[in-house]
Amino acid sequence: MDYLLQPWAWYISGPLIAFVLFLTYYFGKSFGISTNLETMCTIAGAGKISDYFKKDWKQRDWAIAIVLGLMIGGFISNSFLINSSVNNINAETITDLQKLGFTYETGSFVPNELFNLENVFTLKGFSILLIAGLLIGFGTRYAGGCTSGHAITGLSSLQLPSLIAVIGFFVGGLIMTWILFPLIF
Fold first, then answer.
1. Which of the 8 DSSP states describes residue 12?
2. pLDDT single digits (tens) 47-75
3. In sequence order, which ranges of 30-90 are alpha helices (DSSP H)?
4. Is the dihedral of CA 117, 123, 128, 133 positive or negative?
5. Please, are residues 94 and 111 in contact by the beta-carbon 8 Å criterion?
6. How many whole angstroms separate alpha carbon 181 and alpha carbon 185?
7. Of the chain's two ends, which shows fewer C-beta atoms within 10 Å, N or C?
8. Residue 171's pLDDT is what?
9. Distance from C-alpha of 1 to C-alpha of 160, rounded to nearest angstrom
10. pLDDT for position 113
11. 3-state secondary structure the chain
12. Which residues, 6+ apart, have CB-to-CB distance to 168 below 8 Å?
C-alpha cells in the first residue's frame, strides 16, 4: 500500500495514460475534458439559449462517466492516499511566490491567498476567478479543446492543430507567469 502514497514515476503513469488512450481509440472515442463541459451545458438546457448546445448528450454519456471517475478518484486520493511528507514544490518557486506576498505552509501545494474560501468572496478573488474562467472557457472553445485533449490525445495522434494549440498554451503560460502574475499580485 505504501507505493500508492508516493508520487508515481513517469514509467508507470505514462503507460497508464497510453493505455487509457488506447482504450478510447479502440472504442472510437477521443479523450478530452472540455467537451464534457459542453455536454453538461447541453444537459442543463443551454440549447434553449444557443443552437450550439442543441446536441444529443446521450452520445457522450461515456465521457460524463470519465469526469465522474476523475472527481471520485480525486476525492479518494485526497482523502485516503495523501502523503503530506512528500512535497515536490521547488524551493525557488516557494521563494518567488513569497516575494509576491504569498505565504507557504509545509505540505500545501497551493497558496491560501488564491485557494481559500475567504479570499474567493473578496472583490479581487471573485474578479480573478471570473476573468480566469471566462478566458479559459473562451480559449478552450477557440482552440477546439483543452490542454489534456490537445496535449495528450492530439499530439499522440500527430495532429498539427494540437501542436499549434499546445505551443499556444505554453506561450500563454509563460506570459501569465512572467508578466501578468507579478502585475496582478
1. H
2. 899 888 888 888 888 878 888 888 898 88
3. 34-43, 61-80
4. positive
5. no
6. 6
7. N
8. 94
9. 41
10. 78
11. CHHHHCCCCHHHHHHHHHHHHHHHHHCCCCCCCHHHHHHHHHHCCHHHCCHHHCCCHHHHHHHHHHHHHHHHHHHHHHHHCCCCCCCCCCHHHHHHHHHCCCCCCCCCCCCCCCCCHHHHCCHHHHHHHHHHHHHHHHHHHHHCCCHHHHHHHHHHCCCHHHHHHHHHHHHHHHHHHHHHHHHHC
12. 143
Residue type, 83: N
Mean pLDDT of 16-29: 85
CA–CA dist 50, 48 (Å, integer): 6
Q: Name the grid cell of 12.
A: 508507470
Q: Which three cell numbers stand for residue 146?
A: 483543452
CA dihedral 143, 149, 152, 156 (to 10 degrees): -80
The count of C-alpha atoms lying within 13 angstroms of the C-alpha of 141, restricted to the half-sphere facing its C-beta, is 10
Residue type, 91: A
